[in-house]
Amino acid sequence: MVEVEGLDFERPVVQLEKKIEELKNLDVNEKVDFSQEIASLEKKCEKLKKEIFGNLTPWQKVQLARHPQRPYTLDYINLLMSDFVELQGDRGFADDPAMVTGMAKFKEETVVIIGHQKGRTLQENMVRNFGMAHPEGYRKALRIMKLAEKFSIPIISFIDTPGAYPGIGAEERGQAEAIARNLKAMSELEVPIIVVVVGEGGSGGALGIGVGDKVLMLENAIYSVISPEGCASILWRDVAKAPEAAKALKLTAQDLLGLKVIDEIIDEPLGGVHRDIEFVGRHLEKKIKRYLNELKNLPVEELLRKRYQKFRLLGEFIEVQPRRKEKTEIKKEKK
Length: 335
Description:
There is one protein chain. The protein has 335 residues and is of the alpha/beta class. It folds into two domains: 8-54; 63-312, 2-enoyl-CoA Hydratase, Chain A, domain 1. It has helices at 11-29, 35-53, 58-65, 73-80, 122-128, 135-150, 168-172, 175-188, 203-207, 228-235, 242-249, 253-258, 277-296, 300-312, 327-334, and strands at 82-86, 99-106, 109-116, 155-161, 193-202, 214-218, 222-224, 264-266. Strands 1, 2, 3, 4, 5, 6, 7 and 8 form an eight-stranded mixed beta sheet that branches. β5 (193-202), α9 and β6 (214-218) form a beta-alpha-beta unit. The radius of gyration is 23 Å and the shape is globular.
């Protein structure tokens, strides 16, 4: 993992944890008993965690979703799956390392895995393009999804991207068309699809692998039509307004559960999943297993009908009738 000082709001916790670690090392090396001091600091640290992480603002959750130590798709594959075999290339242009696809065993059952992948270091991020997939990434995902359908294999999709790559080359190769094709295809796939938002869920880049029968979301992940910075630059022409935009966008897991955009929230430990991925793994494993068993028992027609209804019911629409003009208003118009 990358060594970091911590985000601004979590820095007091990080500093206290470092002091605890130093005392533990002294306890071993100097053979001096610091157990009381360590216990006192640990108690203080737990209290501080609850104060800080128990009342996070939407903007702080955005920062936590982007935490450089947060686990990525390959981390979840290594944690939850076995016998993973990566499948590469879109059979048309190239392979896209920002999108990981392949087959694995989940609880002895074969599944197809799709997910965005960021890098830990600058060099890795250059290769992975910071998790922003090109059109060939979405076409690779579509190829693997069609393979899953052909052999009746369930699909598990991990979302973690700031958005699809907006570069000239990506646009020339049909970025929007590739995402739109995936949306249509995923709505019609005759196999169960479980989607998990593990970090950032940014715009069409997330939706390109985000149409599922069940959509789960980690407690401190985010999911939005646009980044807070992008929203702030459009509405206020000021990126510094990003915290206000984050609040207005309703991008947290709690907001989206209330809006029925997602089906369930996966709890994280205090401070975020990067502090204890095993904790999240246990909860996620149970939920995926439960939903897979539930979805596999549905007839294909019922599976597709439920998926269609799920996305059809998103959003609320109010039809407003045109206001009838009063006679006085009509007379004024004639004059």
